[in-house]
Specification:
80 residues, elongated, mainly alpha
């Protein structure tokens, strides 16, 4: 059994009014939209974006890995 808790959020009245209008326009409860947004935010913070995930996979394989003796050496290798 899931226990529900309440949460208060301070916001500008105009933001609240526009959000409520958008929720009503889609016939969805505002609280459900907020819960969905919270779940998306959590998932996004736990999962690297596609570029980061690809970079991690490539570096694990030794691809696009640079070895440098200094920052200046690294910048030179990267052409920056």
């Amino acid at each position: 059994m899931t226990k529900e808790v309440q949460m208060s959020i301070k916001m500008e009245p105009e933001l609240r009014d526009r959000f409520m209008a958008a929720a009503n326009g889609r016939h969805r409860p505002a609280a459900q939209i907020i819960r969905d947004l919270m779940r998306l935010y959590i998932a996004d913070s736990e999962t690297p974006n596609a570029l980061t995930a690809d970079t991690l996979r490539r570096s694990d394989k030794g691809e696009d890995v640079f070895h440098a003796s200094s920052a200046a050496d690294l910048f030179k290798q990267l052409g920056i």
